[in-house]
What does this fold into?
Amino acid sequence: MAKNKAAIIFALLAAALYAINVPLSKILLMNISPTMLAGLLYLGAGIGIGILLLCRKIQGKTKDEKWLEKSDLTYTIAMVVLDIAAPIFLMYGILNTTSANASLLNNFKIVATSIIALVFFKEAISKKLWTAILLVTAASVILGFEGSDSFVFNKGSLLVLCACACWGIENNCTKSISDKSSEKIVLIKGVFSGLGSVIVALAIGESFPAAFYMLAAMVLGFVAYGLSINFYIMAQKDLGAAKTSAFYSVAPFLGVGFSFVILGERPGIQFYISLIIMVVSTVIMVKETLGNEKLYSGYVHTHQHRHGDVVHTHAHRHFVYNPMHIHSHSHNKED
It folds into this structure.
């Protein structure tokens, strides 16, 4: 029981740390250009996780972890490229819309991830999850319009949706290599995607910010992405993937709350209509996710795993909120 309570705290901490990213990024955008900020956030996560990984290695806790192999190269490259594009879209989106709007629109990653999983990986989606997906889509459309008297789509919302689409594809790529070391994958994501974004920023004429803002961005990246992932993995060890995902689903709503408190934002009526729809869709998804866990006695995944000379697959359904989310796996003896 004590372990479960601690794991719940870790899951909620993971959600809260990720949720703080959008409002604080909006503040940093006053002094850092969008593409540069995207790169610094990911670099901060990669370097921070790298330090944690080094500490674990010194303590001898990484011996059983699997490193990426040559066969994983295609998915790894795709993951890095998409993790360059997605945060750039997000930063430009945050720059052009409210923080609360951007936070709530993060739920659209659910739609992107599940549709891509259905089309390209042939994963099944239940009727209840289709209902949730349609609700999220409807809420995203409502959020996207600039006002009740305008049929012009908000540019910031569109950019956030582009980021979600990139992360939806990236989630499916990462899932295909997620039997490898979580920290090592995040290290690659952070360092290579971060460097890629910085190179793009310099190429389009952006410059490095003052040292203070550069450090602040990297610390935020480490906290919002690096530590968030670390707490997520810690929670999952005791709660399992489904329950951890359920607790983590509060992240977009925490982001909305942080936006209200930190930035003093007060969106219009259409935001609150979308918020109610998003809450309903999230409740449906959480119930379905936890129901599947009870039905199948586990939260299993549809990608190949290698145990010695034996390669096998698992069927699954799951939704990822965190753009740098990685999950670990456990196997029953009959696997």
Q: What stands out?
A: The CA atoms of residues 110 and 319 lie 6 Å apart. The two ends are 28 Å apart (CA to CA). Confidence is low (pLDDT under 50) at residues 295-304, 312-322, 326-335. The first strand starts at residue 145 and ends at 147.
